[in-house]
Amino acid sequence: MTETPQQFRERLSQAAVTWQVRLSSGDVSDATRAEFDHWRQQSAAHEQAYQEAVQLWQQLSSPLQADRQRRLAFAATQQRRRQTRSRTLGLAVAASLVLLVLAGLFPDYLHHPLADYRTHIGEQTSIQLADGSVIHLNTDTAVNVSLSDKERRIELLGGEAEFEVAHDRTRPFRVCAGHTTTEALGTRFIVRYDGNGGNITLLQGKIRTAAPNTTATLSAGQQIAFHADDLGTVQTADVDSAEAWRHGRLLMNFVPLKQAIAEINRYRRGQIRLLDDKLGEKEVNIAVDIQHIDAWLEALERTMGVKVERLGGDAIPFGMITEWH
User: What are phi and psi of 324, to 5 degrees?
Assistant: First the structure.
């Protein structure tokens, strides 16, 4: 999938924020500084993205600095011991607030910032490896890649990816997600992992999946869930739904609305909230264009008779499905 100009700008902006966080940590090595300088000098767009990140950082810091000054002014009237303790507390609170604000505005910016390849919320991309294999990354996904003479090893740190494996009998292709390892030769499969567990869907060929306590072999059209140390049972997969995101769609059949909302929220920073628990149990079938989720919300109002309230700015819309009409 070719990166669009908008995706390019967003990727640079996200990288710039990550760099600003690292550089402001107070513990930056010469190697890190050199790496940053190299990144910043790649193009005028890189420099612009960094300057915008600095401005954002300054805007976030201003009210925190004002709060700190008020704390120190009050502390000046107290005993020296209490004054010192208040100053230290003020600094700690300010630092915590900056991190909380950043996490709120950019919930995915600080996820695995040093991964070899990563996407952010709503972004998808494809990477061709030196062996000819291709990795398609879905929204909010990070991977590390290690290719050697004996093995091709991919670590899925989080998110979802489809793997098109180039045949190489001498070098097994292995995907690790937590404690689960999937091995394949000349095949195509999807792995999804949220840090605690996930599932593996085989589209073509055969794979062998191993966890510390068990192993399983899958054939095309099958799926298996995994947890910390165990595998579930092999199931027949809904292949069309499993790989719909590769075509810019989300397909889900006969699932509770709350499950559909949770899946849709993976693709947008402005989250959709359900305020009616009974509505969340309503069974639905959905076909959503990932790039036009708001259009699906509008259709939901018309077809299901629900009320959708929209809060927040244009950049990060926030939706609440509140009640039946």
Answer: -75, 145
